[in-house]
Design goal:
mainly beta; WD repeat; four-stranded antiparallel β-sheet; 312 residues; 2 domains; Methylamine Dehydrogenase, Chain H; 25 strands
Amino acid sequence: MFDGHSDIVSCVKFSSYHRYYRNNDVQRLSVCSSSYDKTIRFWDFTTGKAFIVLSGHTDYVHGIEFSPFNNGRYVCSASSDKTIRLWDVETSKSLHVFNGHKSGVLCVDISQLQSSNRKHNNNNNNNNNNKMNNIGVIGGNGYTICSGSFDKTIRLWDLESAKQCSIFKGHEDAVYCAIFMRTDAGGTMLCSGSSDKTIRVWDIRSKKYIRVFRGHTNYVTCVACPSSQSGDMSVICSSSDDNTIRFWDIRANKELHAFKGSDHQADGIKCIQFLPSEDRLNHTTKSKLSHSDYHDYSLFYGSNKGPIYMWG
């Protein structure tokens, strides 16, 4: 048990940075958590003690996300103080505060949207990986942060310029979750869930939603793509406070499947996470998933009552 936060814990992730970073030649496996106590804490998985505390937010801290570059050295956080902060895990310092949302920020994600342009413009891609930008981030050029907020918008922030670059409007209530999704053609889309009970898929260039999925009867709490490791992004999954998890086909624009958590088990489903089976991890020659292939994944979900369940 990791005990130290003084209020509700809103998000927990393994620290990808500390899987690679070696201190005195000893690899440290650690857990990162955000809390309503306004802090982000890193916990030693062996001792259960916090060894880093990031303080700076002035209100609840909600979602956190590690950088997909530089071995996860940077962590991004969303807060009810209306800001997104970018932290350097190695130095425990806040590098930048992104301001622009009109209300509390609930979720964040990070993706590389300009990789093809960057590779074209750099004779040696390693030069870009080692370059520090003007806010002190190494290897972040070409990467973008997305954030969802109580102000009903999704916003994109360029890590290189540290400026807001896009606003997506269409949800009729708070945006609880927003993620980047790769397309079959190698592009990127956005997928979001809201307390307006809908899931929306967005075209980044036009800043407009191209799909709206309706079916949930309460807040949409989380969205995920079960096939993110295969390259086939035609199916998305969502969870809701209506105690259901639903699968949606983007191409066919329809619901594929829904299952309900047992009333005695769950009072609303808060989060979902897919993990590939050992067979899927070893089956590297298969590049696409059909709908029948989802038995190769296990779905973990957390409920409002506290327990974590596995399906599949």
